[in-house]
Amino acid sequence: MATGTERPQLNTGVHDTSRAAITARHLRTDRWWLAPAATAAGLLAFIVYSTWRAFGNAHYYAAPYVSPFYSPCLAQNCETMKGGPNLEIFGGWWGISPALIILVFPLGFRMTCYYYRKAYYRSFWASPPACAVAEPHKKYSGETRFPLILQNIHRYFFYAAVLVAVILTWDTVLAFRNSDYEWGHMGLGTILMVINIALIWAYTISCHSCRHVMGGKLKHFSKHPVRYRLWGWVGKLNHRHMQLAWASLISVALADFYVYLLASGVFDDPRLF
Amino acid sequence: MSASTTPTQSTPDSSPTGAGDVASTVPAQAASAAPATSYEAKFRVWRGDAEGGDLKDFAVEVNEGEVVLDIIHRLQATQASDLAVRWNCKAGKCGSCSAEINGRPRLLCMTRMSTFTREETITVTPLRAFPVVRDLVTNVNFNYQKAREVPAFVPPPGVAAGEYRMQQVDVERSQEFRKCIECFLCQDTCHVVRDHEENKTSFAGPRFLMRVAELDMHPLDAAEETGLDRQTTAQDEHGLGYCNITKCCTEVCPEGIKITDNALIPLKERVADKKYDPLVWLGNKIRRRTTG
Asked: Could you list the residue ranges that cross the membrane (chain A) (predicted)?
């Protein structure tokens, strides 16, 4: 005779027959769904915006500013940017937007980043959606198999991201010109580009792979005092990796959007001097 | 650790005397406006065993300054004398009273009642990743099994036990991991085993991957000289690849250990050195050849 306290007829995870017979997937009473929902909304917004801009192939240069989405420009079909990042490695055969070539690297860096992995595993794949909230998947192999085992190449994207950041730094230096390419000038765009590159460097350097390369891999810090100190500095930045990931994501979109507004003639760059 | 199924000694109620003294010195209006220091809380506690069980409702007195474990003890003393709960130090240091409070893995003794509103119903269940024994007590043998699977510290050859010398900078990283009180909340919340019972054979869980990291970072551990590669075994035998670094272990750790950032991710990077980075592999080969 049923007494109402029998074990539910589900036998996986928290409903395994050996565990406490509780039907609910979770018993959390807080708004656990808010963080993954906000993360998904933020990432989706960026994906939509960056896809539109990357495929647009227009309005990415307004002298002296170049959009970070199109720098360096590796194809021949780029606008000529005086003193800027025209590196025509791909030659003339590339017919579509040149942004698609270079964006692979920062995209790969962020896709394999330890913070973003947490963010999208939780918010898009619900694995898990939140702590102590049962995930909907029947099987789980984590990062042991293809394709997720490729997350282990994060360090190579880190190296590529450093190169891209160096080029974006040069773009920021070029922003201290006016539209006639004369040095010693600043506009609102210069400030935005300086903020953007500072955040991009902070995010790049605070990466876990960078922390490992700087000194995390060592067993004896005492034998490598310089690397120990570097490891400590990167570690301090690494505590803010999530905040830097979001701040740099927003700043790179804002910098690009500013260039788009200038290039499409919505307004002129307010000049400071 | 022991499972208490009998009423425990009552915990001292400090509030009535003190509260009365204060109330007598303030005007009557102000005293009536101040919240009472005692109130009746609504609790739902899971009662049952491996055969089945259910959440039972209780109304129980709560006094100022109490923690959830105090309330569970009061339930034992007044309404459910056979309620099983595992506890010991009541100071957040023994790791015995792990349970789930409102669905979140917590220590009963470190969860203050003042963090809840007086109106809300507080649900207390056993850890949901381990087999239940009775009421709030679970069988945590899985963790001891996994602990045994991690090879111990390998002493350096030619150095007597009393002659170990290490620089503070070399050991401070792993000292963070030594704060672990083995409450197994991280093991409980980790979805790899919580949501997939079948992974328990191949995944050690965050607590014991942290132990592997600790030993791999130990300046005197001579495992490699004896042919034990902790980095490769972390991936191949202890299931590091299952971890998708969603940081729940760090979120629930009552000792505030940054398990993910300071143990699991550094260990993943060390494994990448060993198994997935051809440049590091080539560099090590060349270095060995030139030094050898």
From this structure: 32-52, 91-109, 156-177, 183-204, 244-263
